[in-house]
Amino acid sequence: MVDNRYATALVIACVLSIIATVYLSVAVGTPHWYQYISPPVYGEANASELRALQEEFMDGEFDEKTYSDSLFRLNGTVGLWWRCLQVPTENHWYKEPDPKMVLDCVSFTLQQQFTPKYKEPGNHNSGEDLIRTYLWRCQFLLPLVSLGLVVLAGIIGFCACLCHSLAPTLGIGVLHLLAGLCTLATVCCYLAGMDLLHRVSMLPDRVDASLGWSLYLALISSPLHMMAAALLVWAARSHSQNYYRMTAYRVA
Predict the structure, then answer these.
(1) Domain carrying residue 21
(2) pTM: predicted TM-score of the whole model, two decimal places
(3) Positive or negative, the Cα torsion across 234, 235, 236, 237?
(4) Judging by beta carbons within 10 Å of its beta carbon (0-12, 13-18, 19+), is residue 172 exposed, middle or buried?
(5) Average pLDDT score over residue span 58-64
């Protein structure tokens, strides 16, 4: 028999875990982790240059400097799996005061996720930048680890429900704590990597950069997983202590 307090804690923990997992899944699958706001374009010459950048971004060979310059100049957004540009729908968009824009995205392939970063982006002779390389790989792998831990916790919890047992609750709480830490580490690695990129690849004049809503979703999911972990650990510890007291009382 489970005390009402423990049952309430378990229900709240499950709700928090589901919300956090949904937030993290949406964050991983969307490109709005970091966004750039570029100045408007005037003149056909500048428009032709930006059109060439767009074509190179969409169809050209993968190169960090090329896609970074395109992101800087064309209101780009970049996430863990996607990089996107805001492109006009009309051919003579530069003549219109307020052209209609759409988001055109390209995904990072698995091979591109593990491509080395260089001390000078685009210059393969400058030497590999190990810090940026491993920060990028960590920001790609850690959210997958986090989601995997939550899925494992869910499977264990489902089996525990079928067996009417609270014994695995402590382990499930620890898995949620690790998932929250992995998500927090993902955000830290991403922000550190973007900061290092901006140090070696300066932003053009009048281009502003800001954090996107996808990053905030990931940031919110981390404490939600930790709160779920705290409730699960509390329920497991309290139920265990109460069980041992009742056993000692019956023996006595």
Answers:
(1) 4-240
(2) 0.84
(3) positive
(4) buried
(5) 77
